Amino acid sequence: MDGPVAGAASHLRRGADRPLRPGPRRRKHRAARVARTERHGWAVAPRVRSGNGNEEQGVARIDERRAANRRTGLMLAVVAFAFFVVVILKYKVFGR
Amino acid sequence: MNAGGDGPSHDAPRRAGFWPTMRAVLWSFFGVRKRQAYLDDAGSLNPLAVVAAGVLAGALFVIVIAVAVQVVLA
Amino acid sequence: MAAVTHEQLHGHHPGPTGLMRWITTTNHKDIGTMYMIFSFIMFLSGGVMALTIRAELFQPGLQVVQPEFFNQLTTMHGLVMVFGAIMPAFVGFANWMIPLMIGASDMAFARMNNWSFWLLPPAAVLLLGSFFVPGGASAAGWTLYAPLSVQMGMGMDLAIFAIHIMGISSIMGAINIVVTVLNMRAPGMTLMKMPLFCWTWLITAYLLIAVMPVLAGAVTMILTDRHFGTSFFNAAGGGDPVMYQHIFWFFGHPEVYIMILPAFGIVSQIIPAFARKPLFGYASMVYATASIAILSFAVWAHHMFATGMPAAGQLFFMYATMLIAVPTGVKVFNWVATMWRGAMTFETPMLWATGFIFVFTMGGFTGLICAIAPIDIQVQDTYYVVAHFHYVLVAGSLFALFAGAYYWLPKWTGHMPSEGLGKLHFWCSIVFFNITFFPMHFLGLAGMPRRIPDYALQFADFNAMASIGAFGFGLSQLIFLVVVVKCVRGGERAAARAWEGAEGLEWTVPSPAPHHTFEEAPIVR
């Protein structure tokens, strides 16, 4: 239980509140693209650059993001299922 | 509180202590927050800590009302 | 580069066509559209039930339906509207708009998204099909209170399974939304820059994950009581029927917020757009939404003041309920403050949004009146309560849904909805809505109980008025159907930013939004 929770927590932090992009206007776009692929590996990035050797790396990043999604999703599903079980097993909690 | 927050390439620090987190949650119960305080929160609060503080403050809310009810009924 | 990228990305595009396209789609826009069509069909089905109810209540005595069938109608009207119309409609909005608003290419779990939707039609078939089984549909009221729900025929089982399936669908949808909002935001789109609609849906999704399993547990216990010899709620076997009410309302009260928080989100998008001012107190709005989510778990027994609670319990839930009105009041204040000295225009979405504030606030205040335990003991199970929750759910959730639909129809269809028909729809709806539901306050205060097919003579005039209003309101909704069909088929072309004051990433993509958007994540300053 500790693993997925910790994983999700770090991912949550990573996803939130990314700082503003600094630097001169001309370079903003490129800097952001680099930052983006480092953080997220958006599906489109490696395809746009296909042929320049980034392909494998890109696939790895997609997997990374999918794994992060799956981790968060599974954690939430476990929570939901736990509520379901707890309500039935511990129904006396709400009794008088 | 925001030391190091200027660095663009790494995440903002998440080291708000117990009381700033509690304070943010308690303000939420009133439903009002100053913009500057909110920006500070945005930069410093840890989401999981906020969830924990929310549950704690919820329990506190229940206790306070329960005590108030006891006082009224006494 | 754009053209090359486009080619590469869409080379594989011609997939299944016709019906198979919709059955196999994983596109968030397709799925959002299906959710909304589904919910509109269910809205019309629930509406027909409501009109049958109102036809019966037009005059005292029994004219149109038998009492047994009347009870089935009230039950199914509630279930269909809550689980079939309002909730899926908001999920449809979330599917369409959240990826567009946060700059994501799709939802996090695209295939699960397809499954979430396609669970709904079978559930609807179970629910509506239960009218045709021996004994008819469930007639225990939408709350499915024991002991009635432990005793009924197989229509009750079908309703239980339908609720199970819709619950699974809701939970999967909620997980999808949480993960999408947390993990799929475009670079620079921090949580605190997110449009309020995404915030309200994030918090709503957490509420769904927390309480839908509780409802599933409650109906599962009814099921085992009915068929497998348990006695959770069966007093004859040592069970406690009141415990069912506690469990149900532990789900039911957060459910109220599940149905209203996304509505708050939609209105918070529309008011700034047509007041041409940023939302007043964005931070406060986020905080208020979060606190409503926490506090909504501590007020459930205000639905049960008449079940014989100790005085301490009554006072506790009365105080807690009145306090939860504070953050809600802050929201109303913020909307009004957003409009204050704004350059306002009243296009159709804004009309619905302002109408929402006006009428929803009335529902909020009658809620406060019901929260006062001694008053609630007088009005509980009367038409006062019916009036209250229709002011909240129709004038709240439904009006906000219409506001959102008119606001984003240009983005969905590429055409502007007809202003004339939209305004007609609004004015007919708000006038007939009040004709229908305002007299119910008086009926309730005079003591007319809810869920009955016949009533004493002194209630006749207000009931006749309410029935006339109900038919007016029901027929007015067909105007919306006409508007949407016209808008899909043609009309004035919509610009990317269809409304002058509209802000947000969704207005940076063309109208209609292309099938695939933000495959290359946008950069948010």
Automatic annotation (TrEMBL), chain B:
Pfam families: DUF2970. The keyword Transmembrane applies. InterPro entries: DUF2970. Keywords: Membrane, Transmembrane, Transmembrane helix. It comes from the Bacteria. The chain crosses the membrane at residues 48-73. This is DUF2970 domain-containing protein. It comes from Thauera linaloolentis (strain DSM 12138 / JCM 21573 / CCUG 41526 / CIP 105981 / IAM 15112 / NBRC 102519 / 47Lol).
Automatic annotation (TrEMBL), chain C:
Its EC number is 7.1.1.9. Belongs to the heme-copper respiratory oxidase family. This is Cytochrome c oxidase subunit 1. It comes from Thauera linaloolentis (strain DSM 12138 / JCM 21573 / CCUG 41526 / CIP 105981 / IAM 15112 / NBRC 102519 / 47Lol). GO terms for biological process: electron transport coupled proton transport; oxidative phosphorylation; respiratory electron transport chain. PANTHER family: CYTOCHROME C OXIDASE SUBUNIT 1. It is found in: Cell membrane; Membrane. The chain crosses the membrane at residues 35-55, 75-98, 119-146, 158-184, 196-223, 243-267, 279-301, 316-337, 349-375, 387-409, 421-442, 462-485. Coiled coil: none annotated. It comes from the Bacteria. Cytochrome c oxidase is the component of the respiratory chain that catalyzes the reduction of oxygen to water. Subunits 1-3 form the functional core of the enzyme complex. CO I is the catalytic subunit of the enzyme. Electrons originating in cytochrome c are transferred via the copper A center of subunit 2 and heme A of subunit 1 to the bimetallic center formed by heme A3 and copper B. Keywords: Cell membrane, Copper, Electron transport, Heme, Iron, Membrane, Metal-binding, Respiratory chain, Translocase, Transmembrane, Transmembrane helix, Transport.
